[in-house]
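Usage

Read records sequentially. Each one opens with the input sequence:
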Amino acid sequence: MEAQARKLFRLGRTVKILLIIMVVVTGVSTLLTSVEALRCTLRPADEVVYVVEAMELRAREKAMMGWCSVAYSVCTIIVFGYCISMTQKMAADRDPFNMENVRLLRRMALYFGLAAAAVFIFNAAYASSSDFNAVQAIYVALGQTVLQLVAALLLRFLADVFEYGVELQQLSDETL
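and closes with the structure output:
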């Protein structure tokens, strides 16, 4: 049992370090994106701000895409923050089955769901500003959204598994 706890502690510490790096990188990216979105928000709405291969993005479209990207990044940072606190708690307690971890997993699932909404709006704005036909626009808008929703459902399922683990732990403790 002690070897398994050490293994969990090492893995938890490694995951925590990786998540901290991802939060820092995502935070810097979010800051830069919000500055760009603010610049586009302050410009006249019909001013062309981005041109690539005969495709123009106007300030309104670029600002909307920027703010959706910021919302998605903020949700991601919050989820990673919960992941960091959960791995830190699991590595310290050596008891992953507790109600605090269940609450953390449920919050993570909620924020992944919110991130899915932000991704959907971002991708829909991108598809509408591009010259996509209806099928391409639907595919672009739903692609990442479905993945985010699946991640949210998996986290919710994992929260339910952890809650069941808490109940089993309580039953085990009561019988001893």
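Summary fields computed downstream for this record:
- The two ends are 18 Å apart (CA to CA).
- The chain has a mean pLDDT of 82.
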